[in-house]
Structure formats: C-alpha cells, structure tokens
Amino acid sequence: MRPLFLLCLCFFLACLPPLAGLQTTVQTAAPGLTTATEWFQRAGERLELRMQGSAPFHMKVVFHAFPGMEFLGPKEKSEIVAGDGAYEETWLSPHKWRREVTLSSYHAVEEESEGVRRMQASSDYEPSRVLMLLDALLVPIPRNFFSEEFRHEGASGWKVDQVSNANLSLVRVSKTVGSERGDLTDAFYFLPQGMLVIRNFRGLVTEWTSAVLFSGKVVPRHLSIKAGERELLAANISIEAAGPVALAKLDALVGPAEPGMTLRPFHDFEVRMPDLTFSHAWANVGNSGPGRAFSLWEVLDRHGRYREVELILVVNKNDADTIMTFMREERHHPAEIDGSPCELAVSWGFR
Fold it and tell me: How far is the C-alpha of 276 from the C-alpha of 124, rounded, in Å?
C-alpha cells in the first residue's frame, strides 16, 4: 500500500489549465528562448531582487490569509491561521538584510549581518499561509529548475508551448505525468518577454499582477494564491529604495539562529528528507477500481507533526473525513538541514 507522493508536481483532478479559454496554438517559444531552463532562467533573473549588486530596497506587504478546506467536525476548531497580516523586508546585500512578519498571534523577525543570521519568533512553528506568501515572494521559480547546483533535480521533462485566447497569449512550460487514472500536471505561464504571471505548482495557483520596475527588476504589486476558485491568500506589495530609517533597524537581535529556524521556505531538494511512506486503506488503490482522487497541502513541523492540513482538490467529498483524520494523526521524523530540524510544506496527491 503505497501513495503517490508529489513534492514537485501539482495535482489536477479535472486536467484543466488555470486560464479558462486558452488553447494550445504552437509548440515554439518566443525568439531567443527555446528550452524550459531558459524560460525559468529569464524569469528568475527578472524577478530576483536579492542578487549580488542589486539595489538595496525596503518592501512592505499587507496580506489577508483565508481559511482552507479542512472538513472539520461540529466541535473541531480550525487549525489554519487566517486573518490580516503584514510583511516587511529591508535588503542591503545578500548578507545584510532584515525580514519581519506578523499574522494573528504569530510574529517573527529574522536578520543577517556581520556574517551572522539571527531570528526571534513567537513560536517555532511558521504558519502555512506565511510559508505560501514567502515562497511566492522569495522563490517564485524554484532553484532546482535552473541553477547549476540543483538543476539535475528538476529541470528535465518540461514542454514549452504557447497558449492563447482572443485577448492574451502566454508561453506555458509544463510537465505532465499520467496514467489511466488521470494526469498530474505542473505548469508555469510567462508573458512572451519572459515575465512569470501564473504558477500552478503543488496544487496551488499563484498569480502575480500589476507589475512595476524597480532598478531594472520586475516587482508585482499584487499576488494571489488559490485552490481552484477558493482564495487562500491575497497580498498587496510596495517597494522603495532603502533609506536611513530602515537601516537603523538592523542588528537588533542577538545570538545566531539554528539552521532550521528561518522564515525562508525550504524545498525538498535542499533538506534531508524523512521517510514519509505510510499504509492506509485509501492509499492502496490497487490495480482495479477508480481509487480516491484528491490532493492536499500541509506543513510537516519541526517535531514531525502535520499542521494546518487542508484539501486542495477532492473528487468525492465522502472520502474527506477519513483522509483528514488520518493525516492529522500521522507522525514522522522531521526534515533536517545541517542537522537541525526544519519545517517543510508538503503536497500529497493520490489517485
């Protein structure tokens, strides 16, 4: 009895693209960009604000975190941390910066200067919606899709084509794995000039809109994260040159942080992964029958417990109680980085 475990492919039960009405028109990319790696590289370069030599900046983000689909009983309390939140970042160089985030009762500050990274947080658990936000802000294109260090982990098997409707034309970079039970598809959508505008990744749809230029870099002023038609997070972003007031906040914390304590979301290819296999009746789809098709998102915390478990897509809602109850009770060894336990956002897909 073995589940199909997906960390890098999102799960589409209906096998539909994220933009209604788009049709595949050609199998070629815009001039100068022909491979998936080139599209990932171009978008990463245009979005990356935190490279050596980049202009110092001060970023403010106000966001709202929405509840998720938890299928709770009458007396069960929601575990998903929701509500209004704020994120603020001052960046001067790759090794001199400060980040601060607040959502409900969670508050954390992380900074690096003088070769030391420090962190102070109200809890050793970083809420799921904060992870979603920072993943979209800090790593919209995962490094294993284009970097020399990690490229072998995720750059193969991608197809480049163009999709369009009457008003819009986009380049799609996608990867699909299928069987008689259905297809699993991961897709990134780019403007012809190389700007990333939509990501269907790990069962979540992220959209970046209303972009502006800051020192030659593209900065979206709005981003949203959805599961189907359900909104999970909406954020408004502003950016300006870093000034003296922002600089004064640095070096306020004391003591180095543990490697696994950080606001930056970790990806599976950069940590020591625990054994996440398990056995359960709904995980054993066998060789016949339709199987219970669903995908879910959750956070494996620093103690090996799944937190904020939510269904992203499910074919048969009658399966939801069994699925959610089991996952909330499941325990594993936590992921680790440099010997320190760390959080890891996990996507599961079963079919």
Answer: 22
